[in-house]
Amino acid sequence: MNTYLDGRPAAPARRFSRFLVFGLVVLLGVGTLTARLFYLQIATGSEYAARSTSNRTVLEPITSPRGLILDRNGRLLVTNVPTYAVKVRPADLPNTKRDDVVARLGALLTLDPADINASIDGNPGSAFDLVRIAQDVDKSTALLISEAGSDLPGVEVTIEARRQYTDGPLMSHLLGYTGPVSAEQLPDLRALGYQPDDLLGKVGLELQYEKDLRGTYGAESVERDATGRKTQVLSTVRDAVPGASLTLTIDTQAQEDAQTALTWAMERIGMTRGVVVVMNPQTGEILAMVSLPTYDNNLFSRGISTDDFKKLLENKDKPLLNHAVQAHYAPGSTYKLVTGTGGLADDKINPGTLLTTKAYLTLGSTKFYEWNRRGWGPCNIYCGFGHSSDTFFYQVAGMLGADRLGYWANQYGFGADTGVDLPGEVSGIVPTNAWKQDALGARMYPGETYQAGIGQGYDSATPMQLINAYAALANGGTLYQPQVVRDIVGPDGAVIRPFQPRVLRQMDVKPGILRVMRNAARETVMLRHTYNLVDMPIKIAGKSGTAEFGVADAKGRLPYSSFFVGFVPKDPYNGSFDKADSELVVMAFAHDSRTVGNAATEIVKYFFQLHFDIQKDYRLPNLLERGNFYSND
Amino acid sequence: MGVIRAQPARVTDWAAKSVGTAWRAFDMQLVTYAALLAATGLVMAYTNSVESGGTPLEVGTTFTRGLMWAGLAVIAFIIATAFDYRWLKTFAWPVYAIQSGLLILTLLIGDGVGGSARWISVGPLTFQFSELAKILMIIVLANYLSSHQAKLDSLSTILGACLLVGPPLVLVMLQPDLGTSMVFAAILAGMLWMSGASLKWLTALAAGLVAMVPIAWTSILRDYQKERLAAFLSTDKDIQGAGYQLHQAQIAIGSGGWMGKGLTNGTQAQGDFLPVQTTDFVFAILAEELGFVGAMVLFGLFILLLWRVLVAGWRSRDPFGTMFAAGLGAMILFQLVVNVGMVIGIMPITGIPLPFVTHGGSSLVSMALGLGILQSINIRQTRKEW
Fold this sequence. Notes:
The structure holds two protein chains of two kinds. By secondary structure, chain A is α+β, with helices and mostly antiparallel strands. In chain A, about 35% of the residues lie in helices and about 20% in strands. Chain A folds into two domains: about 60-250, Alpha-Beta Complex (Penicillin-binding protein 2a (Domain 2)), CATH 3.90.1310.10; about 250-305 and about 320-625, Beta-lactamase (3-Layer(aba) Sandwich). In chain A, strands 2, 3, 4, 5, 10, 18 and 19 form a seven-stranded mixed beta sheet that branches. A five-stranded antiparallel beta sheet of chain A has the order 12-11-23-22-21, sandwiched between helices. Chain A has a three-stranded antiparallel beta sheet with strand order 1-8-9. Chain A is elongated. Chain A starts with 15 loop residues before the first helix and ends in a 22-residue tail after the last helix. In chain A, about 45% of the residues are buried. By secondary structure, chain B is mostly helical. Chain B has one domain. Chain B is about 70% helix and about 0% strand. Chain B has helices at about 1-15, 20-25, 30-50, 60-80, 85-90, 90-110, 130-145, 155-175, 180-195, 200-220, 225-235, 245-255, 265-270, 280-315, 320-345, 360-380; strands spanning about 120, 125. A two-stranded antiparallel sheet of chain B has the order 1-2. In chain B, strand 1 and strand 2 form a beta hairpin. The longest helix of chain B has about 35 residues, at about 280-315. The chains are: A alpha+beta, B mainly alpha.
């Protein structure tokens, strides 16, 4: 025993058993660690090795250039412009810094922080997917943001292609625009290879032909670090296939002429809504389609601000709507084409049949007035159609009955989609007994059939259906599906899908009857029902229409819109309407025009003038004075 | 107070011995193993600096700062070795006061992540005094237990030891640093065990601690600590939240295989998938880059080191030396098992460093200080029984 240390008794501290147990605890502890390590590294090591690889390599999409859109003459209507986009990966944006980052982004991008927060919160993908905050950011701002790095965690600047629409508002309703994938769309689109931050067609042709325009995204294997930054591209797994291009049936010149004519009349009248459609009746090709008011689709492809979007939505004339196909209106007297054709085809009348036109017809106790409150005495179809006699067509409609009238409306394509290759088409209403039973629970009253015979009452049609019906008249009885896209052209320039006229139906009518109706339409012009249209050097046949709508004013007068559909023979100067060779039908719709004369006729007249480069000005501006009475049916 | 009177005699006594005798008692193996472990830490710091894309030898990298701390650790070791440990017994109570003072100071002016107060910055250097406090705690406890040799069977001695550990443990827990406070408990347990304290009372104490667990969960643990514990209990459920580190660490380790991917080739480290890779999770990088074999070498070094620590305790004729070795050994073992256990997913996540290897100056210098005191104990014993 050692008493070396300050005289105390020797320590009993060293107990071998306690040392032994301590040593065993050391071995047990390290042994446990070793066992677990062996399990991780050796027993299941290969699985972890694979996870390590998948951890750092990821398949990333290679975007494909979106297809171009050209007019029928090869003019580029849209191009792809590389722009900077600012995106946020929410997972990399710490919650504690979010307000600060959003505020700084707002200041840099001159965006409302609330909008930025809305974008982040509306993220359709997961927190690890990029969310687009701003598109089309100018270069200096983009550089500033991309260099901010750790000051703006989770913020990334990417280069993406923006759609630049050459003519903006002129073609907006046709072309539509692209926009970000929405949260509702994403689940379905994921399966098709779309990314949460993808742009895709939202309306118009961009939407209709999305599949063709988009092309096929490629894929590359990319090495990334934990923050998701690309460190290097390892290999291209699949090349991207550029989208196909569209050649339209639209002629930019005709489109401009149509817009010029419509704008002129609208400004003159102080009217706020109108449509002009120009079509080749031999093929169903749409040459021009203008719906006013319009909007600039470049606003959308740049990322429209909430304010701008709200303004467009709140406008009572619905500029975002293509009124040619997405809205339907009472067609008015233009519909007498259906009644006349039906009367002749069902042998209710023949071209020589005279019906008495007078101030009004009486049905029970109700008076059905002639539009001029006089009538023209005994009239045949030429006289009746030419003067647009209401009492003539009340009688024919009465002879046909609602169902046969509906049958002939269907023959002309009313009551069904025309199938035009634009999204959101509506089909209008053709009133029949079955329709009314279904919709209102009663059969058609005779008076309602009278109204239906002159394009009032329950009748409702889109401007597109109306022009398509007259196209069938002009071409001798073939109802085509109107088309806006001519050819679909592959990225290599080869035509993938050449233009093919598509026939909806051959009408159930003898050619001779349609010849009568074409000449009756010519009679409208010849009788000066359309004023000086007859004086023009080209031969025009057509039909005007006026349709009341809405709520009567203090004097019991309803506001009204006017229509005119006109067509010319293949040789507009010397041709004849005996032939069904017309290659040009033009339709104008002037909503709530309330003019002294038929505003739509003036619009079509002006279009023809521009289109055929007629130097003399036949326009009659005084007809476009506002006058709230039923003057010129 | 006879102790104080006796001290000067022994200093003279030691000075009379030849330096050669002292050096024979100096444990070269202990130093070698510790140096190899510290070198491993430096290698990991180097590989990390390379992976971060920098030149590792530049000023301010993890590696150069590691070198600087290693230099400071060597100085601390030499001074502690040269210093006669017996003075520590004399100054045990001032040491305790200093320890408590440093921990209070840390709470008052310390910095840390997310509102915690764990270290004090002085210029470019940061000091985590809780690391030093662990060594000081061992000194205080060793003094207490060695001076109560005769009464080790009594409950009062055990409770007295607990009372000594209590204040620093609570101060550290307030920072909050649950891990380090657990180290204090481990030190106490190891030293009580080795002191030869009554098994009956030790068992009772252990049972009491187990009973405390529900109370700790409801009133002591903070939310993030509970999250980590919950993440530990269900590693694969929440791989993006609290379990992320753990998930990535296990991928790193698992993908290392037998031989590892080679230094600087760890993809988990390179891609920054693994957070805090040079500090608490350094073992994950080691296992990824050096593999199972490398990890075994590391474990081997720790076992050898602990063996030499126990040998030093066994050799010591002075109960203080035995107690000090026990405390140091318990601390190293506990930190090894908890840190590596955490990284490989069998222990909850706590901020406990891997001794010598984890990059962190305070930890390394404190360990060097501890080993220096142990060497001081080694070379100041007669070697009759060994």
